Amino acid sequence: MTQWTMKYGVDVYSAPAFALMGMVKKSTSYKTSALYADRGFQLLDMCKEGKRTESRVTYISWFQIYPFSRPIHSTLKHLLRGYKVGMETGDVESAMWSVSQYMCNSIVAGKALKPLAVDCMTYIEQMQMLKADFTYHMSLPFAQGVLNMIGDAEDPLKLSGSAMVEEDFLAMIESSEGQFWSSLHLQIFKSMMCSFFGDFENGAKLALERGDVYEKKNGSPLAMTDTLHQGVSIYAMARKTKEKRYIKAAKKVKKKVATWVKKGNVNAVHYLSFFEAEEAALEGNSDEATRHYPRAISLASSSGFLNDAALVSERFAEYLLHDLKDSNRAGQYFQESIKYYTEWGSDYKADLLKQRYSHLWEEEIPKGIAVSPDFVEYAGNNVIQEVSDPSAAAHAVGANNGRVLIAAIAQDESGDESKAVGKTSAATSKECAENSKFNALGFGGNDEPGRGGANEDSASMDISAITTPYTKVRARPLPGLAADDNGVDKVEEGDVSESGTTEVDVMDDKTDVVSIASDGKRSAGTSALIASRDLLLEGYRTKLDNGDVESVAFQSE
């Protein structure tokens, strides 16, 4: 098609053809690959019907090409635009690919976990409704991997929680079209959980079994983070056992990352410094190890990879403690790791580190370092947390009829919990009726992002306005509550809290607060992470029931 375009002129499929050619060229040159993607976007402007294929060009370019030569954080806004355009033009398949890849790139980039958990659960439900089984199956491990990191799973090493159950997932994909890819994604995220939660033996086993098959078959940004986490487990086992199979595999991982960096992959530079440190530690060169670890941490954190900065800090602390017997410095880097995990949104992991290693530092962590308070209550799947900092208070608090409910438990800075108690469901229901306008993806006014490509500086983009798919005031019940025909929450008979009062989950779009009205014994206010999607999904279902698939798109009014 690229040759036909050069010979006969521009067609509606010329732009996707150039983007696909860029994918092919990626194996030899990231720069050449990006040039083909740039030409693809230029061809969209030259074709009268270019918008028909814009979503396809967008997800190919901003997922398979640009992340290898540009900061991966810059891809997120464009992938959400690809989703929006695909839904508007009826290209639902490309829209679902765009949003699936948005989830994937967000994980690689270390996007804040708690809002990402909301995004993931929202989008996979939409994929399921639209019967986009291929992307739905592939995306489920993304969602559960994120949820595992915020404490949604009983066993953090197993991908079973509010988004999926591992055994059911394997049965579901057994005869599906995307069984190969879905199974690979499951294995990749299991490897990630092994490196994050210290099961290096199983992590190394998974890495040796899988090798670099994902990179060879797909070559997406997920291959980058997969390589990092494989390397963590393999190097840990190489240092522990000194077995040749691990040492050989570890050197292979480091060589692969060095090749990426040499070709211009800006997102893997801190990987290389980390593996330089691990290599030095393996060889017993403490001077080189203690030089490269801090450099890797600095590179990761300054580039926005809080997830990787947290993990590298933890690995350095382990090295200082167990290999160099330097408990003082180890304590400092464990505290650094706790800070990064907390900033990323994994209070769950931060708490595990505090419980295990807090004896290494004599005093409390300085005020400048954000830490997660201790959990004070577990009630089934509901996690209630007492907090000291409302801005950092967030948790997955379980599932309601199979859907995860993401909320952040917070209390008023003054300490007066009564000030933070949410509105009643009746009052909120009234607000629901009055507040009918919403901007589903933050694309209102003049804020709509460009498509990218050669003429746009992606590094200057602000993606903060479009990270939540849907915002709308809505009263929504916690488990045990139902809504009557007027939208006012009512209590099912016998479902009350221990004190005899009910609990209602309320979303307020003016204060961005989800509140739990209760007896005041728990932390009463809640800082919002979830924007209710139920009203929008009801609209989807109505249109789908009527066979109206093409018009299922986000509306600004």
The CA-CA distance between the termini, in Å, is: 40 Å
For the biggest sheet, the summary is:
3 strands, antiparallel
By DSSP (H or I, 4+ residues per run), the number of helices equals: 21
The proportion of residues forming helix, as a percent range, comes to 40-55%
Strand order of the largest sheet: 3-4-10
SSE blueprint:
Elements: H1 2-8, H2 14-25, H3 30-46, H4 51-65, H5 76-89, H6 92-109, H7 113-129, H8 133-149, H9 166-173, H10 179-196, H11 200-210, H12 213-217, H13 222-241, H14 244-263, H15 269-282, H16 286-302, H17 306-323, H18 327-344, H19 347-357, E1 375-379, E2 382-385, E3 395-400, E4 403-410, H20 425-434, E5 474-477, E6 481-483, E7 489-491, E8 504-508, E9 513-516, E10 525-527, H21 534-545
Helix pairs in contact: 2-3, 2-4, 3-4, 4-5, 4-6, 5-6, 6-7, 6-8, 7-8, 8-10, 10-11, 10-13, 11-13, 13-14, 13-15, 14-15, 15-16, 16-17, 17-18, 18-19
Write up what this structure looks like.
This protein is mostly helical. The protein has 21 helices and 10 strands. The protein has helices at 2-8, 14-25, 30-46, 51-65, 76-89, 92-109, 113-129, 133-149, 166-173, 179-196, 200-210, 213-217, 222-241, 244-263, 269-282, 286-302, 306-323, 327-344, 347-357, 425-434, 534-545; strands at residues 375-379, 382-385, 395-400, 403-410, 474-477, 481-483, 489-491, 504-508, 513-516, 525-527. The strands form 4 sheets. Strands 3-4-10 form a 3-stranded antiparallel sheet, covered by helices on one side. A 3-stranded antiparallel sheet has the order 5-8-9. α14 (244-263) runs antiparallel to α15 (269-282) and α17 runs antiparallel to α18.
